[in-house]
């Protein structure tokens, strides 16, 4: 599916967009991050799990997003029990070294568990169906009291990298003061598990058809950033989550450009070098 070249959004409430943290005016270096597009199959078609972020949050406050967040240095722990495509394979998909690839996959699994309660782990033969025994570990992970590798080892679980697929690579625009270099993954809700809103980062969560979420954004009922909007637009073409996971994708690094245009911000989506 060809991406549209531009999206136009209202200017955010903050004054101006060309704000940078660096004293010399150079772009802020983006922090590595991972986002997971969580899918399930409903009676009327494919649905995606969405979170409405708390308005006071420093990044994307008040916006509707997929679960995800910044990579923790401990996500690179090579001792993590692992099943599925190797870190080197993920590095090839996301054009990064093996260490960062491992951290990105671990960060994706950790953030998904912290923010939605969905745990992409188990044994090499089975996926966790009941996450109730791990509620306290989830809270400890969110408080950064334990690492993902430590939690999995204590619980006797293995990270299931085979439940994830690479989807996209987005970098926050150079004009923004807080930036993330984010790899997007896609995963199917494991059988027996449910996604919830037990996270401090969201005040509302839910499953929705992609087209319905876009309609809500067009009618002003939710805010979507360009990567979320375009991903939802792409997911409309799939009847099932398996079909979405099966599609091979070329991962292209995209750094949107923000251009003031009167009372609007024009978002240019052409892939660029950062």
From TrEMBL:
CDD domains (alphabetical): NUDIX_AcylCoAdiphos_Nudt19
Gene3D superfamilies reported in the protein's UniProt record: Nucleoside Triphosphate Pyrophosphohydrolase (3.90.79.10)
Record's keyword annotation contains Metal-binding: yes
Ranges for domain Nudix hydrolase: 30-230
A molecular function GO annotation: hydrolase activity, acting on acid anhydrides, in phosphorus-containing anhydrides
Keywords: Hydrolase, Magnesium, Manganese, Metal-binding
Annotated InterPro entries: NUDIX_hydrolase-like_dom_sf (IPR015797), NUDIX_hydrolase_dom (IPR000086), NUDT19 (IPR039121)
Cofactor: Mn(2+); Mg(2+)
Tagged with keyword Manganese: yes
Protein name as it appears in the record: Nudix hydrolase domain-containing protein
